[in-house]
Amino acid sequence: MVNPMVQLACMVMPQGPAGQVVDVAVEAERLGFGRIWIPDEGIAARECWVTLGAVAVATSVAQIGTGITNVYTRHPAVTAAAVATLDELSNGRAALGLGAGGGLTLGPLAVKRHRPLAGLRDLISTSRALWSGETVDHQGHTGGFSEAQMGYGRPDIPIWLAGRGPKLMNLAGELADGFIASFIHKDLIGTHLNIIRTEAANHGRPCPRLAYTTMLAITDEDRNRAKAALSFRLVDSPSDVKSLIGLDARTEAKIRQNLATGGPQHAARFVRDEWVDAFVISGSADQCRHELAALVQRHQIDEFQVPLNDLGAAGDDLARAALIATGQAPQTRP
To answer: 3-state DSSP call for residue 332?
Structure first.
């Protein structure tokens, strides 16, 4: 059984009607998932802030937020206003999850990443200033401020970062309240989290809350879904990770081409089985339970987050994750 102090969380990909996403969020809360993230995927999925507003109204206990949004597709003040409004609507349950922005989201919008770390630093500092009632004058990398004031917002709304590069992890240790280690090569989890812990200590602040996200692959169908989920993540990975797994330039080009023409399902055929085992918790239910428990204990992980990329299978995936994490079958609906 996984450490009972570990909180269960989930990321619900809104690739379907918003009402269906809300139903999944309600079921996640019923099963004891303490945090529900909705990612901002641009036009590749339903709009995240509208969907999060509906989730806020339909739930009452779980923390909710963007898992994740970026600094390019909205002015930073608009993002700050959005999460403050969500926090107000949810009675203080909102969090802001941020990342550098991936190709699957930014590519169709013809947005190129420019100095993402500087943009993230700007968004974090200006958001906290606005939530605290300060007047902001700042010429940022993705939007400027001229005597900007909001007049609402909770000063301590949590800000989480997610990413795979060491510079972003350093930024998380310096400034963030939480960090999402998403689909990290299992041999590198300890190295990544230690970067965050060390940077937090260097700045005299507590370590951010640490969440680990990956899929549970038990069946052949699970493995195929894992390949699709890994396809766009692998091509956005740092060069040292690509070298570690043997992702050569030719294979990367094929994955990128198929992502552009047919999406992750088409690109999945170029993701090797050994890559699934390196990034995903796989095997029988018992093997997955033991591996997850070992990872949580070894790396002192605070939350385990389940990605739900298939809304049709989300209910079963939630129940199975709860069983594997706790060792107890969830209660059926009354």
So the answer is: coil
What structural domains does the chain harbor?
7-217+283-326 (3.20.20.30), 219-280 (no CATH)
Task: Using alpha carbons only, give the angle 307, 308, 313 rounded to the nearest 5 degrees.
Answer: 145
Q: What's the average model confidence in pLDDT over 131-159? A: 95
Q: 303 pairs with which residues across the strands? A: 7, 211
C-alpha span between 139 and 117 (Å, rounded): 15
Sequence-distant (6+) residues with CB within 8 A of 87 are 93, 94, 153, 154, 157
Note the pTM of the prediction, 2 decimals: 0.92
> Can you read off the two tokens belonging to residue 87?
């926090």
- Residue by residue, DSSP assigns 222-261 as HHHHHHHHHHHHHHTS-HHHHHHHT--HHHHHHHHHHHHH
Compute the distance between CA of residue 274 and CA of residue 184 in angstroms, rounded to an integer.
14
Q: How far apart are CA 84 and CA 153, in angstroms?
A: 5
Q: Which residues of 5-18 are buried (b: 16+ CB within 10 A; e: fewer)?
A: ebbbbbbbbbbbeb
- Reported as a single tens digit per residue, the pLDDT across 235-289 is 989 899 999 999 999 999 999 999 999 999 999 999 999 999 999 999 999 999 9
**Residues with Cβ within 8 Å of residue 153, at least 6 apart in sequence:** 80, 81, 84, 87, 130, 131, 132, 133
Burial class for 219, CB neighbours closer than 10 Å (0-12, 13-18, 19+): exposed
CA atoms within 13 A on the CB side of 120: 27
